[in-house]
Amino acid sequence: MAILEANGLTKEYTLGEHTVHALAGVDFAVQKGQFIAIMGPSGSGKSTLLHLLGGLDTASDGEVTLAGQQLSVLNDNQLTLVRRRNIGFVFQFFNLLPTLTAEENIALPLIIDGQDMRKHRPRIEALLELVGLSDRRDHKPDQLSGGEQQRVAIARALVTEPTIVLADEPTGNLDSKSGAAIMSLLRRSCDELGQTIIVVSHDPKAATYADSVVFLRDGQIRERVSNVGVDDMAKRLRAIMETMEKLQA
Predict the structure, then answer these.
(1) 215-218 contacts: CB < 8 A, separation 24 or more?
(2) Which helix (H) or strand (E) holds 19?
(3) Which of 16, 138, 155, 173 could be disulfide-bonded to 127 (CB atoms 3.0-4.6 Å)?
């Protein structure tokens, strides 16, 4: 059974007299422990799909089911609880609180949920070690590099042991070396913690860390590719992206 599933997912926006079809009937499923990348040209619907899967936006039609729970039937308070306890988010811009230390930013979801921090101390310690920041736990965001801030954001996304982690262009604001380190960390969290991960990325190299890649164009899934080797995968992804961008032009 899929841990996350979208059926007939449609999203429309009205801009003046025009209707924009951001998603046009997407069917999508992720099994527990999978690492999926979503790729496509600019405006293809990647971020829209991720936001709908995470309950950050509502669909015009169709359904998202997370761990057996249909999101469309939840009220705002119920949806907030589902997001808080089942979904970890990682964004391109790290969204850390500037007055909190790295350790406090990681613990923030637990604090918001009213949980006893002493109970979760081993979890926080393990995550600091996982992201390589045990010696920088007391540093505030302005004392950390961009890559270090994104590692804090990933640890924060993992601290509640969510059902799934959704990452929207997590390497988009980083240099290539830091970006590779972030994708490697997400891969480790999948392999070592059994975490389910969906990443939106425009970068074929970043997508090679995933088990499989879903390609969107014009709000629809056009192709799915399984990872059969990093070098071949990168070449194939690059070729598909170039073809899609030409069709989009």
Answers:
(1) 215/39, 215/40, 215/240, 215/241, 215/244, 216/26, 216/38, 216/39, 216/40, 216/44, 216/45, 216/46, 216/49, 217/40, 217/41, 217/44, 217/244, 217/247, 217/248, 218/21, 218/24, 218/44, 218/45, 218/248
(2) strand 18-30
(3) 155
DSSP letter for each residue of 60-77:
SEEEEEETTEEGGG--HH
Determine if the pTM surpasses 0.90: no
Element (H, E) at 150: helix 146-158
- For 31-152, list the strands marked E by DSSP: 35-39, 61-66, 69-70, 87-91
pLDDT in tens, the chain (249 residues): 788 999 999 988 887 778 888 888 899 899 999 999 998 877 888 888 999 999 888 888 999 998 888 988 888 888 888 888 889 998 888 889 999 999 999 999 888 888 877 788 888 998 898 888 999 999 999 999 988 998 899 899 988 888 899 998 888 878 888 888 888 888 988 988 888 999 998 888 888 889 888 888 888 888 888 765 555 655 666 666 666 565 555
What DSSP state is assigned to residue 210? S
Range of the domain at 42: 4-248
Number of domain units in the chain: 1
Q: How far apart are CA 51 and CA 55, in angstroms?
A: 6
> Which CATH number does the domain housing residue 38 bear?
3.40.50.300
